[in-house]
Structure formats: C-alpha cells, structure tokens
Amino acid sequence: MADGTPVSANPAAVVFAVGGLYVAQSVIGGVTWTGLPAVLRDQGLSLDNVGLLSLIALPWALKFLWAPMVERYRLPPVGRNRSGVIVAVGGIISIAGLIVVGLLGPSPLAPVLACLTIVALAAATVDIACDGYAVESLPRSQHGWANAAQVGGAYLGSAIGGGLFLLLVAGLGWTDAMWAMAALLAVLGLPFLLRSQAAGASEERAHVPSLAAALRRPEIRRGLLAAALYVVAQKTALMMLGPFLVDAGLDLATLGLLNGAGSMVVGLGAALVGGALVRMLGARAVLVIALMLQALALGTFAARDLLFIDLPLPVLLAVAVASSSGIMALGFVALYAQFMHWSDPRQGGVDFTLFQSMDALVSMAGGVAAGFVAEHLGYGVFFAGAGVIALATIPAIAFVTRRTTPDIPATLEPVGESQ
C-alpha cells in the first residue's frame, strides 16, 4: 500500500513468526549480558573487565545509522517485501558466530568480544526488519500482540541465554553449550522465513524511509528522551547482579536456574500483568510504579553492604529475580507499548530502531560505568547510587510520557494518544 499500512490477513501467524525472532535475539543477549558475565566472574575476571561486555551493545546503539538503508531495501518502491532475505542472511551470520565463539572458549576475552560484536551487528540488522515487519503487517488494533511477543520473547530468550546456557556450561562445557544456542537460533528463525515466503505480493510504495522523516515528528523526539531516562534508571544495575550473586556465594548452576526460572515464570507473568495494568492505568502510571519498585530492590542490595545487614541468600535471590525479571518486564511492557504508538507504519523499522538504539547506547555506557563503580567503590555504593537515580527519574519520565495528541502525517490514520 502506498499510503497506508499493509495489514496481514492472519495476525496470529505474524505474531508467532516475529515472536520466534524476538526470542532468538534475546537468546543472544542473554548469553552475552547475563550468562557470559557470570562465567567470566566465576573464572576470576575483574568486574571492570566484565563491564567491557557492554561494548558488544555498540551495534544495537548505532543501528539507526543503517536502519533507513535496511528499510529502503526491505521496502523497495516497487516489488515484494524483502524481510525474509534480511532475516536469512543475518541469521546465518549469527549462527556461524556462535559456533566460532564455542570453539574459542570464554577467554582470552578480546577475540570473544570481537566475534560477539559481529553477531550483535547481524542480530541488530535482523531486528530492524523484524520490527518494521511487525508494525506494517498488523492493524493498529493488534499492535498490542506484537508488543506482547516482543516483551515476552525477550524474557523467554533471556531465560534460555542467561539460564539454560549456564546450566549447559556447568554440565556439558562451554563449546557444547554455545553450539546448542546456535542450533536453537536456527529453529527459532524458521517460522518467520516460512511466513515471509508464503506471504507478500508486489507493491508500490510512495514513502521513502529516512531518519529526517522520523526526527521531524515530536513523538520520536519525546520517545528518545523517554528511552534514555528509563534505561538509566532501570538497566544500569542489571549487569552487576550476576557477579554480585557469585561473590555472595552462588554457584553457576544455581544462578542459571535462577535466571531461567525468573525469566520464564516471573518475567512472563509480569509482562502479562504489565499489559493489563497499562490498559487500566495507562503507560505513565505503570512506568512510575516500576521505577519505585526498582529503587526499593536496589536499596535492599545496598543495605547488605553499606549497613552490614546479613540478608539470607534466599532473600537476595528473591529480590534479584523480582528486580531483573518482574520489575523490568512490568516497566518495559509500558515503554514498548508507547514506542509502538509513536512509530510511523510506513517506516516502522526506522522509528522503532531509533528508540532501541537509544536504549542500547545508554545501556552500553551504563554497563561500563557500572563495572568501574562496583569494582572501585563496592557493591553497596553502586546499588545505592542506582536506587537514587531510579527515584530521581520518576518526575522526568512522568513529564515526558504525559498525555498529548500526536502529530500524525496526513497520509496516516491516527495512532492513538500517548497512554
């Protein structure tokens, strides 16, 4: 369609297809940012070196630079949608990269960082196509399902990459565990490839996707600010949770079970609860609630070191699961729902990519800073500071996500108010 949104005749098939890709991307993220930090700390690597893993997020932070080129290739002026081609090539590169990392072993760190950065580059490019395909292929009334697939897929993939992966490392060794993850990526990508081959006719498209078109819209600018604020408050402390629990006496196998069960049960459950709360209370209220809960969880970790409170390990584990899975899912359902509303269906891959790039850029910088602060000032100061940031962000995020009437291009149907 030249001026509107291509709508799929089978929304459930689209949600299932993109859901597999979202799970696959989160498997890679779980291995990189949850599983690998724990493995490296278990081998004695310093926290500031563990923090360097955040640099692998660089392709996710910069993918907005090539998102317009990907979208213009994916949606040519005349012809079929090429989402399947992009997903197939990116998937092959990602699978091959994990196979190589399996051969390299977790150390030395430099070649592993280089290889996983290439995998991240491929996965980030696939994500551009996946997000754009979801936005354009579903009617606006069905966008909530895509958002549920995105958030739910993220936690399922995180459970696999940060939980099952650690169990496999403990039981089978590094190489077999990494190769199992590579095989899983192939399986998860098949539904989308089959769907893209079966659907899609030749179309004419008048709109040319571009960054300039995105940045002219006030919703995009507000969304970028909201992403930066929220990620600083919610994600800064997450990379240090694994090392913190390892230093508290937790072994890798138990940590793997914790991450897996937390993401599978708590994360998915909180995502569903978050979706219901967004419909009842609005996205802004849910974001504020999540920030308050996160500050409380971080304060619990800080109290253990700063106030010398001897918290039992089960209490620490429960709070860790609540923080990394439950509270995160609750808040990001609301944030991603807001991103969906702010995106232009004619270039959904560009608009949503801008939001995710801001997320990745802030996460990367925060991860490096987190490792440095925790290593040199201790866990207590680090978690206390992160909790203060979460509380201080509440007024700003409430202002940025206030209810307004969106500025919609004339050729588009209204996307609905900010919630």
TrEMBL record:
Belongs to the major facilitator superfamily. The chain crosses the membrane at residues 12-33, 45-65, 85-104, 110-130, 151-171, 177-194, 224-246, 252-278, 285-303, 315-337, 349-373, 379-400. SUPFAM superfamilies: MFS general substrate transporter. Residues 13-404 form the Major facilitator superfamily (MFS) profile domain. Signal peptide: none annotated. It is found in: Membrane. InterPro entries: AmpG_permease/AT-1, MFS, MFS_dom, MFS_trans_sf. It is a multi-pass membrane protein. Its main location: membrane. It comes from the Bacteria. This is MFS transporter. Keywords: Membrane, Transmembrane, Transmembrane helix, Transport.
